[in-house]
Amino acid sequence: MFTSQHLYFDDLLVGQTYTSPGRTITETDIVNFAGISGDFNAIHVDHSFAATTPFRKPMAHGLLVFAIASGLGTYSPPQRILAFIGIREWKFLHPVFPGDTIRLVCRVLDREERSRGRRGLIRWQREIINQEDRIVQAGITEVLVEGRGTGLKSPSQADTESANS
Predict the structure, then answer these.
(1) Which class for 33: exposed (0-12), middle (13-18), buried (19 or more C-beta within 10 A)?
(2) What's the pLDDT at 1?
């Protein structure tokens, strides 16, 4: 359910940037994701094997980190998302380990009005950053966001127009 805090397509402008709160990745997250996804690759769940790798310890699944960041993006900013449309140019740059804390930095890259303003496509430049401010994943996501529709103004647009009258 959307609240009055959830932004419409009309409220999101190119260049706006939002940063999520942090979320610490746990070993429980990794084990649960392995169970849900069926990905029991030893680099994620076998401490003895992981000790023989250059990383020296198990790491989180890249898609687990992406999924958690997707959740963080739902509230940074809160928006009236109707559908997740796509992922472009996504890069997995550095590993994430249990105990690492990630946050998501989102910047409106582009926007396209659709259906006479009843909805619009937002392209987000997203960076998942760890506690050392290192970008661990980055790319572009596309979401469909509810709009106010033709003739409906955002509160900021209405204020601007009335001030100019």
Answers:
(1) buried
(2) 84
